[in-house]
Amino acid sequence: MGAALYNDYFGFRERPFSLSPDPDFLFWSKAHARAISVLEYGIVTRAPLTLVSGEVGTGKTTLIQQLLRNLENDVTVGLISNARGDRGDLLRWVLGAFDLDVPNDGDYVDLFQRFQDFVLAEYAAGRHVALIVDEAQNLGIDTLEELRMLTNINSGKDELLQIILVGQPELRVMVRKPELRQFAQRVTATYHLEPMDLDTTVNYVIHRLKHAGGTGKEFTLETIRHIYNESEGIPRVVNKLCDLALVYASTAGEKEVGVGTIKELIQDGLILKSSKEPLVLTERIDNVGKAAE
Fold this sequence. Notes:
The protein is an alpha/beta fold and about 290 residues long. It has helices at about 5-10, 30-45, 60-70, 90-95, 110-125, 140-150, 170-175, 180-185, 200-210, 220-230, 235-250, 260-265, 280-290; strands spanning about 50-55, 75-80, 130-135, 160-165, 185-195. Helix content is about 50%, strand content about 10%. β3 (about 130-135), α6 (about 140-150) and β4 form a beta-alpha-beta unit. The radius of gyration is 22 Å and the shape is elongated.
């Protein structure tokens, strides 16, 4: 029995644990509330650079979609996802994000002038421009520096362009490099989205079950605790485990998901977990050694 059929079995209106980002299911944990506040603060204050980071699967893209929903009409937004490339390629991504023509034979100066003219025209029309870059950890140091240079379009008291960067923890590490000290100085607000703790995971699972039309009791508390241990509080992994567990439970004719179901799907190899970086272990060993000294 597939996921579409378990909806009928449990009485859900829709899948409670779909992996696609969906602001309608957004659970306002303390961390997510703070992250969206930082993003909104960046928009309201017209901060030149705003940065939000978090592990894979912590809900960053969902936050972006929520932000886009709440923007006022005086903000013209362009969204870039997974941008890569060298100098000049970034400007092509930027122009494309705002549906501007990108000439194949245009050089860097021409592309920059087109973008600057667009920003100034929006300002003259009473709007300001916001560029959101998702998965910004894919940008190299040179490309990030090029982004900073775009903020030079701003002049005087008025901020005509603001840039919001969203990415994985590597982005924070990169921005702290000495080569990007000028970039870091332009960052007005930053927030790192941590994985959920146990209590938040319990509330998260119950919230999604009820939002989809369930009772919120389809998973026992012991089962959610086991899901938390397996997922380490990463929402996307929690969703995978819960979604597959509902498939398993409905196939077995069970109305409540127990720990045994979670163990079974783990044993069946349906969840691939990434290995820890050796650096974490090394740091812990070093810290223990220093403490012993």
